[in-house]
Amino acid sequence: MQHKKKIIGICGSASRNSGNLSILKYIAESEKSELDFEIIENLTEFPHFRTELTDKNVPKKIVEFRNKVSNADGIIICTPEYVFSIPSGLKNILEWCVSTTVFSDKPIGIITASASGEKGHEELKLIMETIQTDFTEDTTLLIKGTKSKVSQEGKITDEKTEFELRKLIKSFKELTKKPAGNTV
């Protein structure tokens, strides 16, 4: 029996039942035979980042998050763009990890699903590069006009978007099979 890869999906949206959460649920459901997929969706539960606590007295919730990231075979982030940037909750949990190596060489899938999303997508790619994650252009996807491509019931309604997601998932799974530190 093949070992299932442990994947953490991080939903950057602050909205309940967002298109971003639906996309992560789609990935989790469609890949359940190969991926052990856990979604972290309520980023408001995490304490605000404080530099004086990055090494000592780190809040328990942050220690647990760092451990999940460290122990995962890969991470997929799916987020909207807010005011030409990434949402504050997503930035907050990433800031808690900057002083660590939990993301170093970690295979990452980056999905920005928003009305436009270009600036937020570029910003997230820059942050992920800065904290030394492992991703390729094939493991990143910008989905513009999400509301017309994901129904309120959480279904992917656009064939091109579904095709692009399948392509990203395939590339991401290949990335998780490589030894750490070997980028394409």
Automatic annotation (TrEMBL):
Ranges for domain NADPH-dependent FMN reductase-like: 6-124
InterPro entries: Flavoprotein-like_sf, FMN_Rdtase-like_dom, NAD(P)H-dep_reductase
Pfam families: FMN_red
Source organism, top-level taxon: Bacteria
A GO CC term assigned to this protein in UniProt: cytosol
GO molecular function: FMN binding; oxidoreductase activity
Xref: PANTHER family: CHROMATE REDUCTASE, NAD(P)H-DEPENDENT FMN REDUCTASE LOT6
Annotated protein name in UniProt: NAD(P)H-dependent FMN reductase
Species name: Mesonia algae
